[in-house]
Amino acid sequence: MITLAHISDLHLSPLPKVSPRDLVGKRLTGFLNWKLKRHGELNSETLNRLVAHMQGQEADFTAVTGDLTNLALPEEVERAGNWLRTLGESDKVAVCPGNHDAYVPSALEMARNFWGPYMEGETLEGAPFPFVRRVGDMAIISCSSAVPTPPFFAIGRFEEKQAARLERILKLLGDAGYFRVVLIHHPPNAELQHPSFGLKGHRLFRKVIAAEGAELILHGHTHRSSIHHIPGKDHEVPVIGVAAASAAQGGTIDDPARYNLFRIERAGNGWNCTMREFGFQRLGQDIVMRMQMRIY
């Protein structure tokens, strides 16, 4: 049996000291949004408690689906790299980037440099994404939807070249009999698309999954717990989102902080997979198991 933990949207805080020259373009609107609203709803104390609880589960692998930073300032990116080392060794943790990690041009390249092996794996054609990590019978396939966008937009992008590589990877791993878990920050299902914060290329992503299949798709971005499905090659593929890991109780927008824990094991020619969701409730101070369900 393999256990997989899923956490997302850390938005590590507090913000580092910001100088006026840092607040150019989108970083200005993001800074104002943080100061006026987000700093009271996303906090490090909540994140620390949730992560300590998750680490107590001793999962075999942890998937982080993006938004470790807020404005992708150099100090934030470096701090996120240090935080990843406290989460676990790089052979047991993989990151796919979020839109906040690519907040401005060159930010994603900076993140790749600082986060190094946490955002690397087996690849095709020398391209950084998708990359693959294999853990027993499970294969983690980390895609990137992270691109810089204008102010007031938080869209992602999934383009043709990455789609072609993902399709080849899914086929190779499917033929080899792996339980394929695809990571992408922005949700790919039609129900969660929006002109200002959806995924450009969501139809293309779903086309690839329909052609070659997958066993599980994990995302963040929405700051809400969610379960959807999209068509796969042989069966519907679960698409599971998780609430922001730093979301405090009493927030007006987000679900309180949560993480998901999956238990995966081969069963003959198929799979057994159960999911348990842990996190805070709207009321009360304890982290509890909020839900348990069978995926396969």
Structural write-up:
The protein is of the alpha/beta class. The protein has one domain: Purple Acid Phosphatase, chain A, domain 2 (4-Layer Sandwich), CATH 3.60.21.10. The protein contains 6 helices and 14 strands. It has helices at residues 26-36, 44-55, 74-87, 107-115, 160-175, 202-212; strands at residues 2-7, 61-64, 93-95, 131-135, 138-142, 156-157, 179-183, 199-200, 216-219, 226-230, 237-241, 258-267, 270-280, 287-294. The chain starts with a strand and ends with a strand.
Give me some keywords for this one.
alpha/beta, six-stranded mixed beta sheet, 296 residues, single chain, Purple Acid Phosphatase, chain A, domain 2, 6 helices
Flag low-confidence runs: none
Strand order of the largest sheet: 3-2-1-12-13-14
Strand content: 25-35%
Give the CATH level 1 class: Alpha Beta
Mean pLDDT, to the nearest integer, reads 95
Structural class determined from secondary elements: alpha/beta
Largest beta-sheet characterization: 6 strands, mixed
Could you give the count of β-strands? 14
In CATH, the topology is named Purple Acid Phosphatase, chain A, domain 2
CATH architecture: 4-Layer Sandwich
The CATH superfamily is identified as Metallo-dependent phosphatases
